Task: structure prediction
Amino acid sequence: MSRTPRWLWLALLLGGILTSYLFIITAGTWTHWPTWNNTYDLMAEGFRAGHLYLQIQPHPKLLAAPNPFDPALADYWYWDGSLHKGHIYFYWGPLPAVLLAGIKAMFSWTFEVGDQYFVFAFYTCHLVAGALLITRMARRLFPDLPSSFVVLGILVFAYATPTPFMIATPGGYQAAIIGGQAFLLLGLVFAADVVWTATSAPPSRRLLLAAGSCWGLAIATRVSAALPVALLILTTGLLIARPGPARSVWLQRLRAALWMAAPVAGFISALLLYNRARFDSFFEFGTNNQMSTVQYRAEWAYLWPDLYSYLLRPMVLSCRFPFLTAPFQLGPGAFPRGFEIPAGYLIDEPLAGLLLAAPWVWFIAVAGVLAGRAAWRASRTRPPLVALDARGRSEVFFVATFAVIGLVTGLPVAAVFMPTMRYLAEVSSGLILLATWGVWSWYCAVRGRPWPRRAVTAAIVGVGATTIVFGLLLGVTGYNEMFKSHNPGLHQRMVRAFSVCSGR
Result:
């Protein structure tokens, strides 16, 4: 009897996950896609009209005011729009709007396209890229790993907080963040293939260009991706040189880095010119002209409250379905008693600490110990990177790049005045993938001993299942009570069927 092709079971698994995403984003109706924002449609319509600003006229009182950004004029603002020289712009990365403008022109669409479609499309790309990375890591680093562990890893990646929560509020803020993450991960897929073949053949220029193009798309969607992209290019370049004289090794690395950096530089140049055309400055993205009372700001005083919030902010527990929520305006209850909250720090946004809502990330501690031990051994023998075989290079690549996406991507929001659930998506992908490497390494380290293997397996399955359940439960509400607001009948049936207590 022939074995089921690997691509077939992966396609079936991803198809099932995407079906569940469709259930969440439509609040269980399957056909009605609630619109939260039309950010990219507004930008696209401006592009189609031949200019870079929105086709929304600022209120005359704003144009006549000496300071249109005075909060006293907030009633006349177009919230989160950037006002400059009598026009309104958005500070979001323009790539999705450019794509939408092209699609609408190609098919002569005249209807509004809400941001929910971008959220679904980007999460589809994010899921596929994550699954490809997980299967590549399993096949290249852990060839004897049970296939059930690979499936569990993909399911955890698909459902860990904040993914269902984000899908349950598919707006422009969410689309920008997950779009950047999706392109970062897709670029890693191409880069991983280059690293894997580096010991046997010169690096493929097509794959290098593909990786760089994806990372350029990430920056054009979410400009904060620029710093991790630089580190990803550096990491990949260091790992793909073949043994030879030192000069030859560094020339190989430089050529590879330039092939990846070329498309990135093209996207960055276009983005800077876009800024110059809108705001008369290459480095103005619109945040300084923003019509909002919650403009972005970061201070060192906010670092510890943010770290606590992103890691340990408690969820609200209830005996009624969905049992776990991350509500607005948790107030001082978001912190331990006696915790000093800095002036100007807002704690009104929904948020659940990642260590509580996605316990799979606990395994990062295991990953840290194992990676630290490997680094210590390497420091004593001092093997150059070019001496590593394909497996060794791939292991360094996966650990290093997952750490970059799980840590560096979150630096711009590490000390902001307003922590919120969507910012978790800046780091959760990399952290979940890094934890997965740690889980599998731990299992392989004890596989030959029956009792430790059983205990580790039980811990992996238990923590993985808990992470999936917690993510799905939080996805029932999202930011704005997705199911309750858009499918109240189904919501009430679920509450009656699954709650373990009565009452409101």
